[in-house]
Amino acid sequence: MKPTLIRVLCLAALSMILLQDVSAQRGRVYHPRSGYGYAPHRGARVSFNFFAGPRTVYPYRGVNYHYYGGYYYRPYGSYLRVVAPPIGISINVLPRGYRNIYAGGAPYYYYGGTYYRQGSKKDTYDVVDAPMGASVPELPEDAKVVVINGQKLYELDGTYYKEDIRDNSEIWYTVVGKDGKVNTDDGSIDDQPEDNGPQIGDIVDKLPSDCRTVVVNGQKYFVSPDDIYYEEVVGKNTISYKIVGK
């Protein structure tokens, strides 16, 4: 290979790395698997000047959620944080590139890990819980690989997905569990065995004593002395903590 060509390839690779690094600093990461291109990751902190265009504010249970490009942002003081939308919030326009899917014979709309159904009011769409058995062709990069009883699954916002290889060799992802309970073709797998202590997906009202605070990719977590990671969950007049890692 000629030296000039090598230099060109090296510069191209460096440019791609720098581009991805800048995007990550702005709260966006490139999602090659998901098909969403540049998309914000859960927990990313952004300023109010982050958005390239107008955004819509949807008040829900006392919180003004900022909606932009199919993703939701919650105010935290002087900045916004990318969050999973609360179940029940309604929007007026579905995000560009949404998918039409069916589960249990009922129609749903899917985008970026979020499921919608037609709202009770005209031209509204309600965020709903992931329907069991729903299959989608892509997941956001936020989905974490987990292994339960020797089986590889993906977890996102407490929902578990199993890879489903279609006849045309495409990989889809089917909802097989929620809230720590997983159903598979081999029967039911309980991801919360009583004799194994706290499990990922558990939500508790109080943190264990002597927890320390850490920040990972801009997201604050509380870590117990036995290395269990908790994420703060703010509800209506309540604060709880969800186990997100062990």
TrEMBL record:
<dbReference type="InterPro" id="IPR045398">
    <property type="entry name" value="DUF6515"/>
</dbReference>
<feature type="signal peptide">
    <location>
        <begin position="1"/>
        <end position="24"/>
    </location>
</feature>
<protein>
    <submittedName>
        <fullName>DUF6515 family protein</fullName>
    </submittedName>
</protein>
<keyword id="KW-0732">Signal</keyword>
<dbReference type="Pfam" id="PF20125">
    <property type="entry name" value="DUF6515"/>
</dbReference>
